[in-house]
Design brief:
Blueprint lengths: L1 E10 L2 E11 L4 E5 L6 H8 L7 E6 L2 E2 L5 H8 L2 E4 L11 H11 L9 H11 L16 H13 L5 E5 L7 H17 L3 E5 L3 H7 L2 E6 L2 E6 L1 H6 L3 H12 L1 H4 L2
Parallel strand pairs: 3-8, 3-9, 6-7, 7-8
Antiparallel strand pairs: 1-2, 1-4, 4-5, 9-10
The structure holds adenosine-5'-triphosphate (ATP) and magnesium ion.
Adenosine-5'-triphosphate binds next to helix 1.
Length: about 250
């Protein structure tokens, strides 16, 4: 479980997060929406322990990542995978080497399993065949790079995965396949997911629950149906704005 309590963060003389309270229970898929610059990525960075708040806490399975340092922080952070907006694969390494990297870098215990077998399993999980293993990331399409980056995240066997704008910049077919993949990992790999997105089509598909970040706080939480039915003008403006010019908003 991830419990965000009274989280506040001031950046450039502005309270970007101004009292965020939100709980994500194990097994669910939560989507966070909100206007550009509202602090969605900043919120994800606090969950990862990459940014420290001015006030408040983030408990991951009871451990407060805002107060941990060093090895203790790393131990909790290993439970949380982060798919960055840019795939952040190393172009000098092959796809297989990229996927294996978190295991070798962190000297993770593989339980006697061979590295190439684990790499292949993770690639299969994201729908990539062994044909890509020897390729460099630069020779893959955008959608395949996203999948390979996700395979690398999965190599850590995370309990939670944070996805920052996973479908941005992808064509609609590729975007849908990534949305399906997020759901598949939730079901098959029992990953609890938090997805930040501008893409309402993806949000409706991926979310058990949608939360809207607005003026530094969670303005709304509810199921996709509840957000569609919401009479809150701020929610309506956001949801309708994006449905009217949906294809443009993802460019
Ligand atoms: N490291 C930083 N130092 C100073 N200001 C920052 C830093 N990171 C983010 N900010 C500021 O915090 C605010 C929120 O940024 P954030 O990237 O979280 O927005 P976002 O909701 O993810 O937007 P987008 O939808 O465009 O990705 C912005 O005003 C940004 O300029
Ligand atoms: Mg962002």
């Amino acid at each position: 479980m991830i419990e965000i309590r009274g989280l506040k963060k001031r950046l450039r003389r502005r309270w970007v997060l101004n009292g965020v309270d939100f709980t994500i229970v194990d097994g669910e898929s939560v989507v966070i929406i909100g206007q550009s610059g509202t602090g969605k990525s900043v919120l994800l960075k606090h969950i990862m322990g990459l940014m420290k708040p001015d006030e408040g806490s983030v408990l991951i399975d009871g451990h407060d990542v805002t107060r941990l340092e060093g090895e203790a922080l790393l131990k909790v952070r290993r439970k949380v995978g982060f798919l960055f907006q840019s795939s952040a694969l190393f172009d000098s390494l092959t796809v297989a080497e990229n996927v294996a990297l978190p295991i070798t870098e962190n000297r993770l215990d593989t339980g006697g399993r061979l590295l190439p077998d684990i790499v292949r399993e993770k690639l299969h999980l994201v729908g990539l065949s062994e044909d890509v293993e020897a390729l460099k990331p630069s020779s893959l399409s955008g959608g395949m790079r996203k999948r390979a980056a996700l395979a690398r995240v999965l190599a850590m066997e995370p309990s939670y995965i944070l996805y920052d704008e996973p479908t941005t910049g992808l064509d609609p077919v590729m975007a849908d396949s990534i949305s399906h993949l997020i759901r598949k990992l939730q079901r098959e790999a029992k990953v609890t997911s938090i997805t930040v997105t501008h893409d309402m089509r993806s949000a409706y598909f991926v979310a058990d629950r949608i939360a809207m970040l607005h003026d530094g706080r969670i303005r709304f939480t509810g199921t996709p149906q509840e957000i569609i039915n919401s009479s809150d003008p701020v929610v309506r403006q956001f949801v309708e704005g994006f449905s009217e010019n949906g294809p443009l908003s993802t460019v």
